[in-house]
Write a structure and sequence with these properties.
alpha/beta, Rossmann fold, seven-stranded parallel sheet, 13% strand, globular, disordered N terminus, binds NADP nicotinamide-adenine-dinucleotide phosphate
């Protein structure tokens, strides 16, 4: 039995044992991945709901990407986590190993890591050239720099462009160079965010990237299907390392007031996102969608009932 499968069998119920390709199947998959286009083979891959997720997670050293990696490994899969900082990736692997009780050999077999800068197409191309075609059946791209915020009329265009390079072009580069490497029946998940369809003042850079990512995901569902599924994942406010740079009191106040405004009365945790991302990676009949995982942010009302004209009107 392959090392990853043997290790998985020790920690998992049999119904979720991984079906990681063997070496010879991998070379067949590689040849097929390299030669096939949607028109060549109109018959869709068979659904495999019990198939473990073997995911490449670009942005997997932190936050929601790391939570998705945890979910994949916990449920019998394996991951290749990637980001710009090797030190962060090493720390993330150690954390995953400690959370899941993996010994060093298990951690090395189930959690591979590599460095990539998603905003740099040459770096992304080189990264995917190091991935054995067919070895992974999911690509999750959570990578993005910290967003720039500010009034549309005041924000320097160059700083917005830099952010778009990271958040939108990063997803674009990864989908373009990563999709051909995925196993048949695999899934691509790109990150948008709540501010695309529920915009916020001073948040135009995030809004435009989120809209563009969702449009890209829907289009790719058509172009890459039926061989691959493509979906966008739209988180609301999720408490991750992304906000570690903030003053703790300010951060707490921001989380608390946002949470209070939501139907679920709390901001998200990375684990909320991890579970939803695993669903998108595995759900064999879901493509071309945007999955909101936002505590109800898309439908939230005014935080203060007194400030909501509609709720006031009902009382009058
Ligand atoms: N947290 C929220 O409230 C929220 C809300 C809506 C949408 N989102 C979106 O959700 C995604 C994940 O957010 P998060 O909170 O999980 O973020 P996070 O904790 O800051 O993690 C971001 C990850 O991306 C990597 N990364 C950043 N730039 C990269 C690049 N150019 N190339 C490769 N890797 C890069 C980082 O590692 P390195 O520094 O090592 O590169 C890190 O692993 C982002 O796209 C964000 O826009 C977040």
């Amino acid at each position: 039995m392959a090392t990853a499968a043997r290790l998985a069998s020790r920690v998992l119920p049999s119904r979720v044992l991984p079906s990681r390709p063997t070496r010879s199947r991998r070379s067949r998959l590689a040849a097929r991945a390299a030669s096939s286009s949607p028109d060549d083979d109109p018959s869709p891959p068979r659904p495999a709901y019990d198939r473990a997720v073997h995911a490449i997670v670009v942005g997997g050293s932190s936050g929601m990407g790391k939570a998705a990696a945890l979910e994949c490994v916990k449920r019998g899969g394996s991951v290749l986590i990637a980001s710009r900082s090797r030190a962060k990736l090493e720390r993330a692997r150690a954390e995953l190993a400690s959370t899941l009780g993996l010994d060093p050999d298990e951690a090395a077999a189930r959690v591979a890591l590599d460095v990539v800068d998603a905003s740099d197409e040459a770096s992304v191309e080189a990264f995917f050239s190091r991935v054995a075609p067919g070895e992974y059946n999911a690509l999750i791209v959570s990578a993005a720099d910290r967003a720039v915020h500010g009034a549309f009329l005041d924000l320097p265009t160059s700083s917005v462009r830099e952010f778009v390079d990271s958040k939108f072009w990063g997803a674009y580069h990864c989908a373009k160079h990563g999709a051909p490497a995925l196993a048949d029946g695999g899934a691509v998940v790109l990150f948008s965010g709540v501010l695309g369809r529920r915009p916020g003042v001073n948040c135009s850079p995030l809004a435009i990237c989120n809209g563009a990512v969702e449009a890209l995901a829907r289009t790719l569902a058509l172009e890459l299907g039926p061989r691959l599924r493509v979906n966008a994942f739209s988180p609301g406010f999720v408490d991750t390392e992304r906000f570690d740079h903030m003053d703790p009191e300010r951060r707490e106040a921001m989380l608390e007031s946002t949470g209070r405004s939501l139907p679920l009365r709390r901001v998200g945790e990375a684990a909320d996102a991890g579970l939803a991302l695993h669903f998108l990676a595995q759900s064999a009949y879901t493509t071309g969608t945007v999955l909101d995982c936002d505590g109800g942010h898309q439908v939230r009302q005014y935080a203060d009932a007194g400030g909501d004209p509609m709720r006031r009107a009902q009382k009058d």
